[in-house]
Amino acid sequence: TLLHVAADGTRRRIAEGVDAIRPSGNADWLVALRRETGANGGRAVLIDTGKGMPSQEFAAPDLRDATILEEDGTPFGIALLTGAGIAIQYLDAPELVQLIPLPARVARLAAAPGGRVALAWSPRGGPAHVIDVARGRLVRSVKANSPISEVAFSQRSAFLMLASQTHVGALGLDAIARGEAADFREILIGSAAQAPRAGRQLLAPLWP
Prior knowledge:
Blueprint: E1 2-5, E2 11-15, E3 20-23, E4 29-34, E5 42-48, E6 53-60, E7 63-71, E8 74-82, E9 85-90, E10 93-101, E11 108-111, E12 117-121, E13 128-132, E14 137-142, E15 148-153, E16 157-162, E17 167-172, H1 174-177, E18 184-188
Antiparallel strand pairs: 1-2, 3-4, 4-5, 5-6, 7-8, 8-9, 9-10, 11-12, 12-13, 13-14, 15-16, 16-17, 17-18
């Protein structure tokens, strides 16, 4: 159960059966995920955190993850990661769905500031897939020397934390906006850890 707790301590239920939440960059919005496999699919609920109220709800078969597409702190769409690929839905035209196929199934999805670029990856291993949301296409897939555990963004770059904790992958975003192939490089940050730490908070942007 997802609860909204007001400043005066009042609690109100917002959504039931929530498996995960994904906040926007400024945390003014979040999307609550209810993953279900099969024909019934799953649900993604866009929530205004200031009001503590659902704004819109989206259904998708085999829903795995979702991320809010926003510009200047205002959401304009949502990207849903499904078994078939990434479904882009715009808030002002939710009946229209743009599907971007992926070459392999992955588990996680995140969007860069501005909502122009999204990355899809799996912490279990395999490449990260770079999506040009504006053009509705897969730009490239990048493979690192270790599974990607977490992704963070600055205004101009994406940073991919590797599970080995030896490198961070850096991906330039400006080239994607120009319709060019994005450069990918690995930056050495230390020696391999014998027992890599699991979970989130391995990488965090320091902008603005």
